[in-house]
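I hope you will forgive my troubling you with a question about protein structure. I am sending you one protein, given as its amino acid sequence and as whole-number tokens for its backbone shapes. Thank you for your consideration; the sequence and its tokens are set out here:
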Amino acid sequence: MLRIHKDGKRKLVSIGLSIHSQLWDFTKNEPKPKCPNKDFINKIILDKKTEYQKEILELNAEQKDYTANSLVEAKQTKFQLKTINEFYNILIKQFEKDGNTGNRRTYMCSLNYLKRFTNNKLNILFNDIDVNWLKRYEAWFKQQGCKETTMSIQFRTLRSAYNKAIEAKAVSSKNYPFKEYQVSKFNTKTIKRALPKDDVLKIITTETIHATFIRQLARDVFKFSYLCAGVPFVDIANLTIENIIDGKLSYTRQKTHGDINVTICEQAMEIIEKYAYHQKKAAYLFPILDANIHKTPQQKANRIHKVGAQVNRELKQLANELGINVNLTTYVARHSFATILKRSGVDIGLISELMGHADIATTKIYLDSFDEKQVDAAMSNLL
């Protein structure tokens, strides 16, 4: 036991070790020379003494009063160590409670990767993660054939969880490994997903009279997104009749919580009217969610994820049929909207506002790079 004295009062603190009394020198208060692991035991005792001495020095420097009892209680509650598995599950449950399905899905994915890497032996502390551990984790990802964009997301999520654990006093920041191990080294440049205007028009004007319902929905969602300032699929799914105000689409983005207001053109309004029966029955503009069935945030998120995958499969097949060599998804409509406006001479600041981005830097990620003809034309003006 570590004995702490202050103002004539004392407090005993266990250091978590015990040895036979025959191996302890009660006069010197230390293990006897013949005690097995003597040096290791002395180190643990010294470390524990140092911890409390440092705490006392800090309190004295800040001129804060304390008692032996308050010092021990504060020290014991300062860090409530939790395993990575325990802390991840706490975060995931909190995200679920808050209805934050996006973060819940992200951290669930991160936890699953960590379990696979450790062969489901994740009962380790965050302090067990050092630079070498992270390098082994990186090597494992490469063996799995994962892209650097995937690795970047997973390492950023792990770093975020580590930071949250520090904030929650579940781990000390003393051995924080991400100061040396830079997550920014991963190449996160994504292939530009914007289509030229001719290809977009080919998609949105293709007749779907004899197509299946999901094919018609896929094309309608793509067209509606493109015509309404690149509205994302998750926001399309959540639209109701209340989001139509004086001929404008007015909604709050699910991801950034920014407010968007765009004029609904005639073609976009025709798509809305096409699903009028669903609107009356299910309370949503598009036949994705049903207010009578999908009530909780998790139910909505699961449904949007499922239908989104079906829609993207149909769009990919549609692109193949039209001879468009691109992995066509609903997000291509958003990228195409931004890029086509830029090439038409529209100011990036206006595009950024229409897309609901917090800053122009985010918008630039969406914008396709200039093609060679545009660069050559610009260079010709130098002389």
Notes: The first strand starts at residue 2 and ends at 6. The radius of gyration is 30 Å. Strands lie at 2-6, 9-13, 24-25, 30-31, 244-245, 248-252, 259-263. The chain is about 55% helix and 5% strand.
